[in-house]
Design brief:
single chain; about 120 residues; mainly alpha; 3-stranded antiparallel sheet
Length: about 120
């Protein structure tokens, strides 16, 4: 009976929704935004915002702390993103200020490893 009530509770938390509006990976980091959760949102939303006020939190960490499935927490986070109570901070990879160049260099190295006898376009022209 306990498992059944937890499933029903998760269903009511998400208002029957099974998919979030935003694509969030397990390691997506969230921080508080300028908005606030509305009164219609469940108390778990207030708790999520409170946790993110302490410090940035990942989707996985929030799900574990709340003891809820990641799928449910992603839906709640989507509601909070809509309310602007949470936001996903923009990050720049620390290894390179130019991720496009880094990607192209990795692709070039992979192609050279696969076909070492191939002549590059730059050399042929």
């Amino acid at each position: 009976m306990g498992d059944e009530s937890l499933v029903v509770r998760n269903y009511t938390l998400t208002a029957g929704r099974t998919r979030p509006r935003y694509t969030l990976s397990l390691d997506s980091v969230l921080e508080t935004g300028p908005g606030r959760p509305g009164p219609a949102l469940p108390e778990e939303c207030t708790r999520i915002v409170s946790l993110c006020q302490q410090r940035r939190r990942s989707v996985t960490e929030l799900a574990g702390t709340l003891g809820r499935p990641v799928s449910v927490v992603r839906i709640l986070i989507s509601d909070l993103l809509d309310a602007r109570a949470l936001r996903v901070p923009a990050t720049i990879p620390a290894a390179s200020a130019d991720p496009t160049r880094q990607l192209l260099e990795a692709l070039s190295a992979g192609l050279k490893a696969r076909w070492p006898d191939a002549v590059s376009y730059a050399q042929a022209g």
